[in-house]
Amino acid sequence: SYSKENKVGEGTYAVVYLGTRQSDSKKIAIKEIKTSEFKDGLDMSAIREVKYLQELEHPNVIRLMDIFMAYNNLNLVLEFLPSDLEVVIKDKSVLFTQADIKSWLLMTLRGVHHCHRNFVLHRDLKPNNLLISPEGIIKVADFGLARAVPNPREILTSNVVTRWYRAPELLFGAKHYTYAVDVWSVGVIFAEMLLRVPYLPGKDDVDQMEVTFRALGTPTEKDWPSVSMFPSYNKLQIYPPPSRDELRNRFIAVSSSALNLMCGMLEMNPGNRWSTVQCLESAYFKELPSPSNPADIN
Amino acid sequence: YRHSSQYRHWSYTVGHLREKRIETNLKAVKLIQAKLQKFIDEQGDNISQSELQTLKSKAVPLTMEEELKLVNFYTKKVQVIGKHLNLPTEVIATSITFFRRFYLEESVMKYDPKELVHTTIFLACKAENYFIGVDSFAKKAKSTKDEILKYEFKLLESLKFTLLNHHPYKPLHGFFLDIQQMLYGKVDLKYMGKMYDKCRRKITEALLTDAVYHFTPPQITLAVLIDEDELLVTRYLQMKFGKPEETVEETGTEIVTPAKENAQKEKQEVKQEVKQEVKQEGEKSEQNGKPEDHPNTEKEEEGAETKQEEEEEEAEVPDGKDENTIELDKLMEQIMACKEMIASMSVVSTQDAKLIYAKNYYCQYPDIV
Amino acid sequence: DVEKRYSINPDHYNDPFIKDLESNREYLASGFRTDYVYDRVLTEAFM
Lengths: 298, 369, 47
Fold this sequence. Notes:
The complex is a heterotrimer.
Chain A: E1 2-10, E2 14-21, E3 26-33, H1 44-53, E4 64-70, E5 73-79, E6 83-84, H2 85-90, H3 98-117, E7 120-121, E8 130-132, E9 138-140, E10 147-148, H4 168-171, H5 180-195, H6 205-216, H7 244-250, H8 256-265, H9 276-280
Antiparallel strand pairs in A: 1-2, 2-3, 3-5, 4-5, 6-8, 7-10, 8-9
Helix pairs in contact in A: 3-5, 5-8
Chain B: H1 5-10, H2 14-43, H3 49-58, H4 64-84, H5 89-105, H6 113-127, H7 134-141, H8 145-150, H9 152-158, H10 169-182, H11 189-206, H12 211-214, H13 217-228, H14 230-241, H15 244-251, H16 258-287, H17 297-316, H18 328-343, H19 350-364
Helix pairs in contact in B: 4-5, 4-6, 4-19, 5-6, 10-11, 10-13, 11-13, 13-14, 13-18, 16-17
Chain C: H1 16-19, H2 25-30, H3 34-46
């Protein structure tokens, strides 16, 4: 039913090919899961990808079209998405407007909201996991680190989310985190779209804390009750949170609503951080410019 | 729930489920018969008449009913081993679910249930984020890495690659909260706590029955709850989904809980506000000149009326509940049917299982016979 | 269904399983919120 044409990527647990669906010549991507590499049978990332993509169906989440076994390999047939947000942000020859950014952020938040209302945490949101369809639609992809929202007493690993997009509670080693970790990642991506350079690029996990708190202020018991109980809290350098003017200087030409939205997403205390619903309902998406029509974005 | 893979791939009518099992059994019977015939042909003259008779009397393919008994027997083993390994309730539930679904698609005459027990539990651990390395799992389960991994792919494929399960435990927690809300001040919380624990155990038993294919997780939860305390749950459901007049008739005295009282007060206030608004609207249009100054005055007035009616209607929706789209008697029917199905679950004796297993064994190894 | 068939009313819940987590500093610091738990289990009950 499918042909594999050329290899377009290789990760730790899978090789991605470009292919065609024979029935209608539709372009597809085939993610072939390497099975020999994982001594414990089927790779956990593959299990997660299969488990959650089977349940999620949304215009802004990558679609799993089929799954099949071949030559003892597991193959995921995914919709073909030729580009991603990282490529766009990095390519300085591509000029994009405030309306374009608003459109991308809106689509990203809708995709993440769909995951959250299905009680799925993505846990690896970053520009190159936000793929772009030929029609310009942003789709959340790569559910290899996803998991269901835990039962209350379950302990979660904090070693998730690519470092630059990792929420402060994860940097502190939290074990009972929530949807808020995904919202933080989207907030950092939003900043990166505006700046066109990574917003919080830490060199390592310790530096990531340093970079994060220098940019956004070191959290205190006042704004984040119980934060001081994290073991690594006491060694922190204390930085003041940026003033509104300082933020405005950082993100020139963005509206006040945009800044409010970003501050809501980058709220240090995860208990107060905005949910995807609050983000989607924020003034930013109601004020001009309207989000660009994805198909018209360059 | 309708979007979930559990609903889309694993819910059947009773008839459909029976057909499915018969079809799976038939496929395997054909394979076994061909295999036996081939064996006999290969023996040629080496096989005596009496041997042939013995073979034909012992190596008889299993019926669908015998298969189902064997599957149920080994499903119980999955549960016992899961408990022995100290796995969380939901991981055991997923193991049971995977094992039973596998044998909807495959026959015990093709895949020996003994060989799938550990693989199912191992995959369930992975699927529920309760990862145990295969080596330590093999040690705990007194099995080997190869045996455990041998059918992992096959299991995943037969599960149609659907790994996310909605078990009735979370709905139990949800109803535990909502009963407290709807019957606020009317239920003994200690009693509720005991009931909760008992129902959790009963839910696991329910997962061993076909109820999981015919009813949704919340319906199974309500069936288990109503089995535990019919009066309490019936009253709760009447309050939740019954029509207001029903609630009063049925229970004689309407249960007016604080939640309800507050909501009733709110309802009165809403009505007052709406009336006030409409009155002001009327006064305003009088004050600001003749109606003709306001085009569509008719429509506006109308608008106000329909708006008021709407508001009133909304206010009519019984308090403490949102828009109710569930018909109580239909729901009760479902729940009672589910309760019957769970109760009718028959336990397979070890003796029975041994006989069936032996029959299957002879089919697999005619030379031994 | 747009209408959720439940409303969350924490003051009415006596839920020992969750209640003590509300004051557990490790949970608080992680961003844990009881209304997320209530929303989850009530959704599963009424879907």
